[in-house]
Amino acid sequence: MAPTKLTGKHAEISAFIDRFDVFLFDCDGVLWHGNTLLHKTVETLDMLRSKGKQIVFVTNNSTKSRRAYKKKLDGLGIPAEVDEIFCSAYSSAVYIKRVVKLPADKKVYVIGESGIEEELRNEGVQYFGGTDPEERIQMQEEDYTNFVPDPEVGVVLCGLDHYVSYRKYAKAFQYLQNPETLFLATNVDSTFPNKGKLFPGAGSISAPLTYMTKRVPLSLGKPSQAMMDAIEGKFQFNRKRTCMVGDRLNTDIKFGVEGGLGGTLAVLTGVSTEEEILSSDAIAVPDAYLDQLSDLLG
Ligand SMILES: O=C(O)[C@H](O)[C@H](O)COP(=O)(O)O
């Protein structure tokens, strides 16, 4: 069925909101662009909370831990508890610790930033790479000569990394030659919306590894249902009374549709366009869409 555009009529918006008790909110492209809040984000979230709705922040952005997200949300005037935040760095760390059960003598090689490192530390998982400045230095002759694959590497985990380097790729490539080394990605978004433009996303960081190793990472961010199950495990919500709000069809909306949620709501302030949402071959179709989140204020 074609999605309905909610245009701000009070009765229509109220009826939509009343269908749900829980709203899962994507962040980049829905609530903010970088560090800039989108129009009336705080007022819209306050309105939902005043109606007794539960809000959970579900982001694929792995550069921050849940604690760092809380700080960001607080700084932007959005009160939130750490437990109300699900980021792909957290879901990856939990997966490695509790699903893979990575043995204590094995470690994770990280292509990514401090969010991943902090969540791995919280789960007691050993790691290296990540934000280590040595990882950004150009490869020298001796690095090629002396490279010895580390048998303790059990996982290569790749997320958004603004400092990705040839050295990191070279090391990950060598570790992934071992078929027993797991290849995981926090998420595989091809692009990242910021300031009304698109930039390379985490999936564009892991793509060269797929090209060079012919291996495809298991992604632990949206639309992976491992993330949905983890959120449900924590909040015990009724999926039919839950709505996923997001800007991207192939992550957020697909996540909600495949998770069997009662509803999905797309906004046009991020990656997917109205044309893509209405296209007959849309990868996932939301129930409704809005020009911007604050249209929920009616
Ligand atoms: O490439 C990425 O990591 C993502 O584009 C980005 O961080 C998405 O974050 P979200 O829209 O899920 O908040």
Automatic annotation (TrEMBL):
Q: Which InterPro entries match?
A: HAD-like_sf, HAD-SF_hydro_IIA, HAD_sf, PGP_euk
EC numbers on record = 3.1.3.41
UniProt keyword annotations, A-Z: Hydrolase
Pfam families per UniProt: Hydrolase_6 (PF13344), Hydrolase_like (PF13242)
Top-rank lineage group of the source organism: Eukaryota
The coiled-coil segments of this chain are none
Q: Which reaction does it catalyse?
A: 4-nitrophenyl phosphate + H2O = 4-nitrophenol + phosphate + H(+)
Its EC top class is hydrolase
UniProt GO molecular function: hydrolase activity
UniProt-recorded name of the protein: 4-nitrophenylphosphatase
